[in-house]
Known about the structure:
The protein is an alpha+beta fold. It has helices spanning 3-17, 23-35, 44-52, 58-70, 89-102, 124-129, 167-177, 180-202, 209-221, and strands at 41-43, 74-79, 82-87, 114-119, 133-136, 139-143, 157-163. It is globular and about 60 Å long.
Amino acid sequence: MDRxxxxxxxxxxxxxxxxxxxxxxxxxxxxxxxxxxxxxSVWLGTLLAFFKALDISDGVVRTAMSRLASDGWLxxxxxxxNSYYRLAEKGRETFRTATAHIYSRSAPRWAGHLDVVTAExxxxxxxxxxxxxxxxxxxWVAPGGSAMxxxxxxxxxxxxxxxxxxxxxxxxxxARAWPLEATGAxxxxxxNAFRPLAAALAAGEALSDLDALVARVLLIHD
Length: 222
């Protein structure tokens, strides 16, 4: 591999390694992006080869796969001595929800207001997973027109209304509901990690098939 390209990938891997271990999350990303559209099942050895390129040991990957299977995210089948895994329905539902957001060709249009909902405590996990921010205990906000998460417990939402106002007021509400500074810093770190790869590709460098898959999966995962 070209030296510049190697350094570009190292920058991405260093960025990933700086975060707490998320092997299980990367596995789900691989399935949703690369495996489900191509039949849905993969030999464990193929995944081990992928993670070896990330310097993640076989033992860590096997442990993560077993945990995902026991938690209902993956289903395992055996063919002789080989183990094959596919996303269980729980995993497919989760990725279907994220697909429109991940692969959208454009950012959602700003509706000019925020949706405010009041909800029972049981709704918190579903609202957080859907990107809602908590303004106060039991009070959640999202960009206007946001879809309510499908995983909500029936009757968990007790009220819904629109918050309007000028840009400064809406920004103030958003700053109370979401960690905007930390989010901005995370985006800056993401851009810095992938900038060397973008420059190398723009200069005409090429990736091997495995390195291209590594870069793509980590781009989507991050």
